[in-house]
Amino acid sequence: MLVVDDRRDIRYLVQSYLEEAGAAVETGGDGQAALDYLEHGSPDILVLDMQMPRLDGYSTARELRQRGCKVPILALTASAMKYDRDLCLQAGCDSYLSKPVQREALLRQVDLLVRRGQTLRVLVVEDNPMAGVALRATLQSLGCEAALVGDGEEALVKAAAEAPDFAFIDMGLPGMDGWELLRRLRQQNPRCRCVLHSGRSADEVISPEPGLAFDEIVQKPASRDQLNAILFP
Questions:
Q1: What are phi and psi of 217, to 5 degrees?
Q2: Average pLDDT over residues 114-138
Q3: DSSP secondary structure, 10-28, as one string
Q4: What separation in angstroms does the CA of 42 have from each of 11, 64, 147, 165, 224?
């Protein structure tokens, strides 16, 4: 992988997170370094800071795409605003991550980009059979490999065996509720993106403890377009 950022401390931090996860990492200090490297090399992923002197990330990404480079680009941006995200995607980046860089968020994004083009494994945890079957069918129509279970204990067994990329979780499960399942999935498989699929709106969802949060919240019944946006941002 190639990490490009003009700040040495951020380069080192991102490099250390990726190397701890088993990746081989090269680094560069500006956009020109990325262009030079990619003339001859082809990393699995380019982690690219957007705000750099000399040649910024937006110009770098556009130039790479004009050259026909298909390496997935993960943008690092100082802002989490939708406008900035859209600018990154318009420049040719495949996904984005706002600073400060958090280890698990970085590894989840990298994992998704590595898996892009591969079949996503999705676990549906829903005690209402009709709702579960409908959601599974929509996910399968999007090209996912989707499994359906009816409670939290089944979900943990299935997740341990199959290591899903996503878990769509209903809040009102029998026995173990959605929050407890989320807590245990985070411990079991931190890279799995957990989506609350509930009758509640996002404004009505209140975490029982600091730091415990779903990656996405979508209200039932989720449309195909909503699911597509979550799975393939």
A1: -130, 125
A2: 90
A3: HHHHHHHHHHHTT---EEE
A4: 19, 12, 35, 25, 34
Domains 2-115 and 121-231 share a fold: yes
Three-state SS for 141-174 is HCCCEEEEECCHHHHHHHHHHHCCCEEEECCCCC
| Per-residue pLDDT reduced to its tens digit, 191-219 | 899 999 988 777 777 888 888 999 999 99
Per-residue pLDDT band at 80 (split at 50, 70, 90)? low
Distant-in-sequence contacts of 62-70, Cβ < 8 A, 24+ apart: 62/91, 62/92, 63/31, 63/35, 64/34, 64/35, 64/38, 64/92, 65/91, 65/92, 67/38, 69/38
Architecture of domain 121-231: 3-Layer(aba) Sandwich (3.40)
b/e 223-233 (16+ beta carbons within 10 angstroms → b): eeeebbebbee
Domain 2-115 fold: Rossmann fold (3.40.50)
Amino acid at 223: S
State how far Cα 137 lies from the chain centre. 22
